[in-house]
Design a protein that fits this description.
Length: 261
């Protein structure tokens, strides 16, 4: 956002952004079916997937409506700060010459009675507060991502504890089965947590750039968690088979004890 030619505007200008958005983003997205290639000779023909577009006019209209809503929102952002730069919208020399005539008129704009009020420190304070708000937003975003990563790690720790537990009774096997099924039901929710972390990381990388504090607001590292997650999910899905094996071992041990008795 810049103040240029006596008005608040975006750089690049909003109309240029709109044109680029429609040309590069919307047209590319909506034209995807025209560029898709299939796996058969028939689907390799140009325009094979065009019916996807032709049969979804309502969906295409929603895409354009969302784009217009986006640019209306950007225009509203400009209006929020118009009052901040109102002095720049007028020819100050002409305005002052026309509006002021008596010495008291000038004095009224320099002082409050016998006191001169300086706004220098207030302007510096506003700049500092805006900077702190930006940093607080980024730090909060990272804290949320870290907390969600810890949620995933805690979930996997609970699962590994379950995997390592050796049941010694039928009741313990039944209890372990219930716990495992509960964790399987929770996999979908944890997958959503992982997705939210990745979204936060994407925003962190975008917002931390240029702050000079990239290290403090670095994206949350999911390398180890992602590597462990696949193996963990597979092991959890197969846990019923492990319980059946434990049940067989327990039955064999009981039979042996009965025979010995």
């Amino acid at each position: 956002m810049v103040f240029r030619q006596h008005k608040l505007q975006y750089d690049p200008p909003l109309e240029e952004l709109r044109t680029k958005h429609y040309k590069d983003n919307l047209n590319t997205f909506l034209g995807l079916p025209l560029r898709m290639k299939g796996v058969s000779d028939l689907s390799e023909r140009p325009g094979f997937f065009r019916p996807i577009m032709d049969s979804n006019p309502a969906g295409i209209a929603c895409v354009y409506a969302a784009a217009e809503a986006l640019f209306n929102q950007l225009a509203e952002e400009l209006k929020k700060y118009q009052d901040w730069v109102v002095l720049g919208t007028a020819e100050l020399d002409e305005f002052v010459d026309e509006a002021l005539s008596e010495v008291a008129d000038w004095e009224l704009n320099f002082k409050v009675d016998c006191y001169t009020v300086s706004l220098l420190h207030v302007k510096a304070c506003v700049d500092e507060q805006m900077k702190r708000l930006q940093e607080a937003l980024i730090a909060s975003l990272r804290r949320k991502a870290v907390a969600e990563k810890e949620q995933i790690e805690e979930f996997m720790r609970g699962g590994k504890e379950l995997f390592n537990r050796q049941a010694s009774t039928v009741e313990e096997i039944g209890k372990a089965g219930l716990e495992a099924r509960g964790m399987v039901d929770g996999l979908a929710e944890l997958a959503q947590v992982k997705r939210r972390i990745e979204e936060k990381n994407k925003l962190l990388r975008a917002m931390a750039a240029g702050t000079g504090r990239e290290a403090a607001f670095a994206a949350v590292d999911l390398t180890e968690a992602n590597a462990a997650w696949e193996a963990f999910s597979t092991q959890l899905q197969q846990f019923d088979a492990n319980l059946e094996e434990q049940k067989t071992q327990l039955a064999t041990a009981i039979e042996k004890q009965v025979d010995e008795y």
